[in-house]
Write a structure and sequence with these properties.
Elements lengths: L1 H31 L10 H4 L27 H13 L5 H13 L2 H6 L10 H18 L23 H6 L3 E4 L10 E3 L14 E4 L8 H14 L3 H12 L1
Parallel strand pairs: 1-3
Antiparallel strand pairs: 2-3
Helix pairs in contact: 3-6, 4-6, 8-9
InterPro entries: DUF247_pln
Pfam families: DUF247
Length: about 240
């Protein structure tokens, strides 16, 4: 009887191992089908200016989660999360639980968004991190202020954008955007009057103002890194690089 019990245990162990191996294969195959969209900046760029690619105040997501210099803000994230849910008209606890469950169901997709090696957090830790960090971001910046309510696709092709120098040489005027509702707005007006060769007859491009400050270098370097890492690098190259140059 004792030998039978041992054999039965061995069979159960083998079945359990086979089950775990099958699940791991399924997980890896699932991840291969999803393209990553969050990258660690290549060392070639990072070594030129390490501080440009390192968070200074808060870490969002797992890549810089363990940085000791960023731990002070972690407790404040929970405060932001509570403020967000307490503004709901009813049952904030229930809504929070629903949010956690939905994120937990997408853990594998979330993991697949990150390219490169990172600390091996378990599913519960990943779900908790995403909910807290996501709610912190939503509470910190309330997204409607970054775009107009009636925003529509412009339909303009991004296959070729001209630099500011080229547009100026072609006779385009530049005007500062003063729309407080949408500070990132851009507008192009091409009104030509045959009797005026200059002045009123020139087309005008209204665009945001770029303020040069201590953090400008970091912003521009991260835009370049994002352009080079993104799967849409060809499109972003035409969108970002002429603007930066």
């Amino acid at each position: 009887m004792e030998n039978i019990h041992v054999k039965k245990g061995d069979v159960e162990t083998i079945q359990m191992i086979q089950f775990l191996v099958a699940k791991e294969k399924e997980r890896r195959n699932h991840r291969k089908k999803l393209s990553p969209s969050i990258y660690i900046v290549d060392s070639t760029l990072r070594n030129l200016s390490p501080n440009s690619f390192k968070p200074r105040v808060v870490a969002i997501g797992p890549l810089h989660k363990e940085d000791e210099e960023l731990q002070d803000i972690e407790s404040h994230k929970v405060t932001y999360l509570l403020d967000l849910f307490l503004r709901l008209p009813s049952m904030p606890d229930r809504k929070m639980d629903e949010c956690i469950q939905r994120v937990y169901a997408k853990v594998e997709q979330i993991r697949a968004c990150y390219a490169g090696e990172m600390k091996d957090y378990d599913d519960g830790e990943v779900a908790k991190m995403m909910v807290i960090d996501g709610c912190f971001v939503l509470e910190f910046i309330l997204r409607k202020f970054c775009q107009p309510a009636d925003a529509k696709p412009s339909g303009v092709s991004v296959s070729r954008f001209h630099s500011v120098e080229e547009l100026t040489n072609a006779g385009v005027n530049f005007k500062r955007n003063q729309d407080e509702r949408w500070p990132l707005a851009m507008e192009f007006k091409a009104t030509w009057f045959p009797c005026f060769l200059w002045g009123w007859g020139k087309p005008t491009l209204t665009m945001p103002v770029l303020l040069i400050a201590d953090r400008t270098e970091s912003v521009l370097r991260n835009l370049i890194a994002y352009e080079q890492c993104s799967p849409l690098s060809d499109t972003l190259h035409h969108m970002l690089l002429p603007w930066i140059c």
